[in-house]
Structure formats: structure tokens, C-alpha cells
Amino acid sequence: MWNMQSRIAEFDSQRFESLGPGYLAVSLLGEAGEVADAIKKLWRTDPRIGSANGFSSIPADARRAIADELADVVILSVVLANHLEIDVEEAVDRKLQIIAERLEVGYYGHEARQA
Prior knowledge:
This protein is mostly helical. It has two domains: about 80 residues, Orthogonal Bundle (Helix Hairpins); about 30 residues. Helices cover about 75% and strands about 0% of the residues. Helix 1 crosses helix 3 and helix 2 packs antiparallel against helix 3. The mean pLDDT is about 90.
């Protein structure tokens, strides 16, 4: 899956000139905001989107739009990671282990303990 990190590095090196970590971080925040905005607009018309079973109420055309915005988030995240020489797969594996350990001790509260 994370051969994507090297594909994005190649794409970045051929097409963009990095403007630095600050610019990438602010751009990432903007793209994440676009994801949230798309879902917020759906939530206005369907309150189920605010619940755990709300995923099924998101229509196909909205899913495509959200997918495009999520792709922007992933790409910018990986570009930033690449410039910082972070192995994303290793970082994700490490973070998943931390989350698993926290779940075991009830760190996330009532909902997490039910899982």
C-alpha cells in the first residue's frame, strides 16, 4: 500500500517545488477543512450523518467528492512526510500500536471499552 509514498515523492519532485513545511501544513489544514465542509453540508439535510450508522446515508456522488478531498489530504500528508524523511507506514504501524494499548486500558472512555 505504501509504495504510494514513493509514487507521491516522484510526482512531487517532477511537478512541484516545495514551499516548506509551514505551507504544506496550512494546505493540509485547508484540505481537511474541505472534507469537513462536505460532510457538514450533508449533515444539514440528514441528521443521521452525525451518528455511528450515518455512513450509509451518504450518497454516491457525495462519496466521490469526499474521496477527492481525502485524496488531497493524503497526498499533502505524504508530501510533508517525504520532505521530513518520515516513513509513513512505520509511523502508522507505531501509532496503531499506541491506540491499541490505549484501548486496552480504557483511555478513550466508554465507547472504546465496548469495542
